[in-house]
């Protein structure tokens, strides 16, 4: 990923947190006849100091048969249009153009497939609990009939992705002048939920 120094984020704890918060990725695996791409929900674990990302695919999806191949999980975070009108410098010299603000994380590594009932059960419980925990009445996999869940498990394959390298890019105008950063912040705060997330990310960068 092209990452100018002013937008590169490499802190492992920050990147793991963002990956877990986004919770959805594109799994990209090149192979001899092309590139396989599958969009998947994920759950993140730490195992002995190693970041492991689990997901699952439909058994009919051939992507799982590429187990062992070098792959990338692409996590697309918030993104929003940035208008030149956000910048006070527009009034000074007019030398401004639109851009796009976004946050993205790439996880590089390899994955292995698993289909044992116990492993799939633990994965589905973890994935479900991660997203149900904040609900007033959380749904649990155990709420569904056991034969029904057992039949569904036979139709999926689990993937365990071992992360070798995480790299992030925060493109939120943190390199701009203080005045234009403040203008970007104000503009993004009016650009919907994703814009607010990006404005908060911009505010986390220290002022020069």
TrEMBL record:
Species the sequence originates in: Celeribacter persicus
One Pfam family it belongs to: FMN_bind_2
Name of the protein in its database record: PaiB family negative transcriptional regulator
Top-level taxon of origin: Bacteria
Taxonomic classification: Bacteria, Pseudomonadati, Pseudomonadota, Alphaproteobacteria, Rhodobacterales
InterPro entries per the UniProt record, alphabetical: Split_barrel_FMN-bd (IPR012349), TR_PAI2-type (IPR007396)
């Amino acid at each position: 990923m092209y990452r100018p120094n002013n937008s590169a984020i490499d802190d492992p704890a920050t990147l793991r947190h963002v990956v877990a918060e986004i919770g959805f990725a594109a799994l990209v695996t090149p192979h001899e006849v092309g590139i396989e791409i599958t969009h998947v929900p994920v759950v993140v674990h730490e195992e002995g100091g190693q970041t492991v990302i689990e997901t699952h695919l439909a058994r009919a999806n051939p992507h799982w048969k590429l187990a062992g191949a070098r792959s990338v999980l692409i996590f697309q975070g918030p993104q929003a249009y940035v208008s030149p009108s956000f910048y006070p410098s527009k009034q000074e010299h007019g030398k401004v153009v639109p851009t796009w603000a976004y946050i993205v994380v790439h996880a590089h590594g390899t994955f292995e497939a698993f289909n044992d009932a116990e492993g799939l059960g633990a994965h589905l419980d973890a994935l479900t609990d991660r997203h149900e925990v904040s609900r007033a009445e959380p749904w649990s996999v155990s709420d569904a009939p056991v034969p029904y869940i057992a039949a569904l498990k036979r139709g999926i394959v689990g993937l365990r992705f071992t992360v070798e390298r995480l790299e992030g890019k925060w493109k939120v105008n943190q390199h701009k002048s203080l005045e234009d950063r403040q203008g970007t912040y104000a503009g993004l705060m009016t650009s919907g939920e994703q814009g607010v997330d990006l404005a908060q990310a911009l505010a986390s960068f220290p002022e020069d």
